[in-house]
Design a protein that fits this description.
Layout lengths: L1 H20 L8 H25 L4 E2 L5 E2 L1 H11 L5 E9 L2 E9 L1
Parallel strand pairs: 1-4
Antiparallel strand pairs: 1-2, 3-4
Helix pairs in contact: 1-2, 2-3
Length: 105
């Protein structure tokens, strides 16, 4: 848990640094931005853990689309926030193991 928290904080620091370097100004909405970032950053770490632990290279998105790890991370970043939550499981798809992402609103 401490490792995930440290990684999340490090990634959040990078997000803030990148945001500042491109001239974005965080306003009174920074709390909602941070909450949204927490959701997808946590999901990234969970996804990375499963991929590393099970040596899986492919991900199946909730709509059935096959995706690479980077495409799945982009999807998570674009999707998570508000009341959307995701879960991950290892499943067999077309004869190979994939990480299945399930989303609930």
């Amino acid at each position: 848990m401490l490792v995930n928290e440290a990684r999340r904080r490090l990634l959040w620091g990078w997000i803030l640094l990148i945001s500042a370097s491109v001239g974005k100004v965080l306003s009174e909405k920074s709390m909602s931005i941070e909450d949204n970032a927490d959701a997808w950053v946590d999901a990234w770490f969970d996804l990375n853990f499963l991929v590393d632990e099970h040596k899986v290279t492919d991900v199946l998105l909730p709509d059935g689309t096959e995706a690479t790890l980077n495409e799945a991370k982009k999807w998570l970043q674009d999707t998570l926030g508000g009341s959307t939550s995701v879960s991950f499981s290892i499943e067999t798809h077309n004869g190979k193991q994939v990480v299945l992402i399930t989303a609930e609103a």
